[in-house]
Write a structure and sequence with these properties.
By secondary structure, this protein is of the alpha+beta class. The chain folds into 2 domains: 174 residues, no CATH class; 109 residues, no CATH class. It contains 10 helices and 12 strands. The strands form 4 sheets. Strands 3-6-7-8-9-10 form a 6-stranded antiparallel beta sheet, with helices on both faces. Strand 4 and strand 5 form a beta hairpin. Helix 9 runs antiparallel to helix 10. It starts with a strand and ends in an 11-residue tail after the last helix.
């Protein structure tokens, strides 16, 4: 907290005869801002620094040959370098990092110590799952009155790899898209997402990131999002869609496979319904709802996803919004959700 201190000059008071008019100085303190910063992902994640990942966390290995994995810090540093290289001349912010599912251990010397006698130096940790977001605020567009910054999101989840085997190509997920600055919702497009990025070292990871950035069509993505604002649904149609989404979870497997995929959970669908009524930015209770707002209701609910499913559901939110938008214009693929 910064304090503004006004210092009186006593010698000048007597010189100019200001004693009768000048009061002793007071300290003016700036108020504390208690507003919680919005996050691009929530669920059970916590914020950490890159230094914490580098200095305080161990690196898991492939148990059969004791070969090192690419740890979270190396993943983040590699993508940060790739972003700065590809978008040279633009402002690139440092990664906002979220982690979950801490894995605890202890050093060999502390194996026989009771848990309540462990020192911090006896403990080891790493995080099973990590997600990060790198903003490029100088590349932006306005859609539906909301500023969208270009962003890169990476996801790593050790639980989706077999660490009990010999070293093999490691799985990463990487996306480039736009982040809504009003709510920090992520907008992920098909050609901006690699859901099965498998590499053996950081050089391959760096090259794959550049390939993804080069293949991403930002103008097409922006046009798609802008076009959503031109289509509206009634409150009855919104309720119909929410009901169909709830029903989707209970369909027989064969019936469900015949329909477009829908990855949101029941809890997230409930969040969409609540936000339709209560959300200050995208709620439209009692009025028509444009598809841009509907899209943000979906991406807002997705922020409660665990790290390992976050990007898949981000892309699925885009698929649902654009598919239902097309269905409202007569397309048959997503017609089941509005019938």
């Amino acid at each position: 907290m910064k304090n503004l201190i006004i210092m009186p000059q006593a010698q000048n008071r007597n010189r100019f005869g200001f004693n009768a008019y000048v009061e002793d100085a007071t300290i003016i303190e700036e108020p504390i801002n208690t507003v919680r910063q919005k996050r691009f992902i929530e669920a059970n994640t916590e914020e950490v620094t890159l230094q914490h990942l580098m200095n305080d966390c161990i690196t898991p290995v492939f148990s059969k040959d004791n070969e090192l994995t690419i740890n979270h810090a190396q993943f983040i540093e590699t993508i940060q370098d790739a972003v700065q290289s590809f978008f040279n001349g633009e402002q690139v912010e440092q990664a906002d990092i979220r982690v979950s599912h801490m894995i605890k251990g202890r050093i060999p010397e502390a194996i026989h110590k009771p848990a309540n006698q462990l020192l911090e130096s006896d403990k080891t940790i790493y995080y099973e799952r990590c997600a990060f977001c790198i903003d490029i605020p100088t590349i932006y567009e306005t859609v539906g009155g909301n500023r969208l910054n270009l962003s890169v999101v990476g996801v790593r989840a050790y639980n989706q790899m077999n660490l009990y085997s010999k070293k093999s190509p490691e799985l990463f997920r990487l996306a480039i898209g736009f982040k809504n600055q009003v709510c920090c919702n992520m907008c992920v497009f098909t050609d901006g997402y690699k859901d099965d990025l498998r590499v053996s070292n950081t050089s391959e990871l760096y090259r794959s990131a550049l390939e993804l950035f080069n293949g991403y069509n930002a103008a097409k993505h922006i046009h798609l999002m802008q076009s959503l604002g031109d289509t509206y649904m009634s409150e009855h149609q919104f309720c119909q869609i929410i009901g169909r989404m709830r029903l989707y979870q209970c369909l027989p497997t064969g019936y469900q496979k015949a329909l477009p995929r829908m990855l949101l959970t029941d809890t997230q669908i409930n969040s969409v319904a609540k936000a339709y009524i209560n959300d200050d930015n995208f709620g439209s209770f009692g009025n028509e709802l444009d598809m841009w707002k509907f899209y943000n209701l979906l991406t807002g609910a997705n922020k409660s996803s665990y790290i390992d499913s976050f990007l898949d559901r981000s892309l699925n939110a885009t698929e649902l919004a654009t598919g239902i938008c097309s269905a409202l214009h007569g397309d048959g693929k997503y017609k089941w959700f509005i019938d």
